[in-house]
Design brief:
Layout (H helix, E strand, L loop, with lengths): L1 H12 L3 H26 L3 E5 L4 H14 L4 E3 L4 E5 L3 H10 L22 H20 L5 E9 L15 E8 L7 H14 L8 E5 L4 E3 L13 H25 L4 E10 L3 E30 L7 H4 L10 E25 L3 E12 L15 H15 L8 E7 L16 H54 L3 H4 L3 H4 L10 H11 L1 H14 L1
Parallel strand pairs: 5-6, 11-12
Antiparallel strand pairs: 1-3, 2-3, 4-5, 6-7, 8-11, 9-10
Length: about 525
């Protein structure tokens, strides 16, 4: 074995500089290729565990994976954590057991570890943090919301009478998922969720802002009846969208799904007015109060009778003296009547519809199963569509509403149905591993055929040539010098044949011309090789 290695080293050393450099480059490239293939084929297949995490959250999840002994990799600039595909479900289960990822929000688990010697102020701060974290987690459960952050201000009570204390306040910042929009119902849900969680907080003191800085709350339907900043355009768009949806949903039952396009432009009145009216009905009188009085007057004359006293007033006794008799009598009566009064108070809220402009486009009708061109709807059909649209939006000629219904052909794009994948993800993973192994085998075969074989063949031919040359040198050295001394120059150098000589013929000619010339020719030939 040692002799073979020494022979290989001698053969490589006998090669030219260019062939040695080519051999070294081929060896290094082959080693790098096989190392990459073996490492990639033998290593586990990593899949994304969590994506789009913040730096602090990535650090917490990485620590949790290390504690569980689960290998991981980072990608996408450190925002994605990957684990082996065979351990992805186990990793998620174990991270969920540790409460990760929690979006950077600390909830009531802050009180899991009891702490002694904590002041009341620190306890209140931890309680506020816990409430904020729990609210953020709950809001993040909404489909359009990607991240949420809640700030709560709970004023400290200054005295036992809470009337002079400030009310709690809260602010919510939401980051929406790409391509989503937070509807007004979702905003209202967030506001009432915060109001029902924090004690003694009013919906007027809750502010909701999205990541772009757009104000979403206070709500437009708060008790004061005022629209929040930016609420008027949103309310107008919602009214226009609802009216257009009514028309489309109604007409699509007749003309077909997707065959109606309706657009509504509403002119809104953003002023608020209040009217109070008092109406009196003179025909409906009701007696409210009644007063009667009687007055009598006498002239002072006294009628004849017995003496005054007890006997005169005793029944059966003698009659008393005469009493004065009245000379006049007056009676008065006063009756007060109440007229019925009706008081009505009406409040006109802001956001009333002043005028509507409706445009409806209906696709031309096409007979089912026929290849004929679409045909416009008749005037009678368009008029019936217009009447339906009028009823759907509450059309009013007094407001000056306008409506137009037109029939036109629709451009129908050709939808390319997405073909289902022929191979399942599990089969793709298996084929990927097999492809790596196959690439390794092909690389080994190609390396042996195109790199090792030519080098070994070249070394073998060079070794055989060197052996033949060494044998010829020995024969030339043993040849008698007299055989070449008597010959003249003309006889020693024969005429060159027209065809190129082979190696053996060239050596034979050189030997015939003399031993010294033959050795020189062989050495020159080796140097050329």
């Amino acid at each position: 074995m040692a002799g073979a290695v020494e022979n290989l080293i001698e053969q490589i050393g006998a090669m030219s500089r260019g062939r040695q450099l080519m051999l070294a480059a081929s060896a290094l490239g082959s080693i790098a290729f096989f190392s990459w293939v073996i490492t990639d084929a033998g290593g586990p297949d990593y899949r994304a565990l969590y994506r789009g995490l913040e730096e602090q959250e990535v650090s917490r999840v990485a620590d949790g994976l290390q504690r569980e002994g689960i290998p991981y990799e980072l990608s996408d600039g450190g925002t994605t954590i990957q684990v082996p595909a065979a351990m992805i479900y186990e990793a998620r289960m174990r991270m969920a057991g540790q409460g990760l990822p929690n979006g950077g929000n600390t909830g009531f688990e802050i009180f899991d570890k009891p702490a002694f010697g904590v002041t009341e102020f620190v306890h209140q701060v931890n309680y506020a943090r816990a409430v904020q974290g729990e609210l953020s987690r709950t809001i993040e459960q909404l489909d359009p919301v990607d991240k949420a952050r809640v700030q709560v201000v709970i004023p400290k009570r200054r005295n036992l009478v809470a009337d002079n204390d400030r009310d709690p306040r809260a602010s919510v910042v939401v980051k929406l998922r790409p391509g989503t929009e937070l509807a007004r119902d979702n905003v209202r849900a967030i506001v009432f969720l915060v109001a029902s969680t924090i004690e003694s907080i009013s919906t007027e003191h809750i502010t909701v802002v999205d990541a772009t800085g757009r104000l979403l709350a206070p709500l437009s339907d708060n008790p004061s009846g005022k629209l929040a900043a930016g609420g008027a355009p949103d309310y107008q768009q919602r009214v226009e969208g609802e009216l257009a949806a009514r028309i489309e949903a109604l007409l699509e039952k007749t003309v077909g799904l997707g065959q109606v396009v309706a657009r509504v432009r509403a002119e809104m009145d953003w002023t608020e007015s209040e009217t109070t009216e008092e109406a009196y009905d003179p025909d409906s009188q009701v007696a409210r109060s009644e007063q009667r009085s009687t007055e009598e007057e006498s002239d002072g004359a006294v009628a004849e009778g017995g003496p005054a006293g007890v006997a005169a007033n005793t029944p059966g006794g003698p009659a008393g003296g005469g009493a004065p008799t009245p000379s006049s009598r007056r009676t008065s009566e006063t009756v007060n009547f109440e007229i019925s009064k009706k008081v009505s108070r009406s409040v006109t809220p802001m956001g009333r519809i002043k005028k509507l402009a409706v445009a409806v486009l209906v696709a031309d009708q096409v007979a089912e199963g026929s290849g004929e061109a679409p045909v416009p709807w008749s005037e009678e059909s368009l008029q019936s569509f217009e009447q339906l649209a009028r009823q759907a939006v509450g059309f009013s000629e007094e407001r000056g509403d306008q409506i137009t219904v037109t029939s036109a052909p629709f451009q129908r794009p050709e939808f390319i149905e997405e073909e289902e994948p022929l191979l399942s993800p599990e089969l793709l993973i298996l084929l990927s591993s097999a492809a790596r192994v196959l690439a390794l085998l092909i690389g080994v075969v190609a390396f042996g055929k195109f790199i090792i074989a030519p080098i070994v063949g070249g070394l073998s031919s060079d070794g055989a040539a060197i052996a033949r040359v060494a044998d010829l040198e020995a024969k030339l050295a043993a040849a008698p010098l007299a055989a070449s001394g008597g010959a003249g120059p003309a006889e020693a150098i024969p005429a060159a044949p027209p065809e190129p000589l082979s190696l053996s013929e060239e050596v034979g000619v050189a030997a015939a011309t003399g031993a010294a010339n033959g050795v020189t020719t062989i050495r020159n030939w080796l140097n050329q090789e």
